Amino acid sequence: MRAYATIHELFYHHLDELYAAENQIIYAISSVLPQISQPAYQDGLILYRAEALRHRDLLHEVFEALELHPADHGCSAVRSMLGELNQMLRCNKPSLIRDLALLSTFHQLCQYVLGQYQWLAQWAERANQLPIAQICTTIQQQKTYAAHILTKLCDQGLHLGLPEQLQAQTLGGFGQLPNQARRRNQKR
């Protein structure tokens, strides 16, 4: 991480990273949507993408208020998380398992940017940049709701369909892994 001469440079760096993160999330959701098998999961990701678009526009307003411009680069933390998403897309997994893994990755991305918005809101408040603090707080509240929706979708998938698919993939029934040794008193 490079050294920053002022707290303002550090703030700009985080603001810029968030702008890049929102762009990467928007692009990733758009590219993944056709591969999601469950309509409810598609709907959840469409809503998340719409929020990310709104948040990116709000961040652009912050840049304008500060008379700055976002740099043209990606966020390294998001790039790393999206690498996991790309690996999952290349794996030959049952559709529900793949869907849940993709949702989980987007949930992690949501949590990451949520923490960054919290930091930006606190900084803006301390720097007496109250309009910027309000924008970041509003986005933070909306991201909290988005994270809640993604959590509920993952939870529904785990309760409704995943155990049956896992059971079909394991030897000896659900809960017993293929390499797990049988107990001595268990018949062969």
TrEMBL record:
Pfam families (alphabetical): DUF892
InterPro entries for the chain: DUF892_YciF-like, Ferritin-like, Ferritin-like_SF, YciF
Gene3D superfamilies attached to this UniProt entry: 1.20.1260.10
Protein name as annotated: Uncharacterized protein
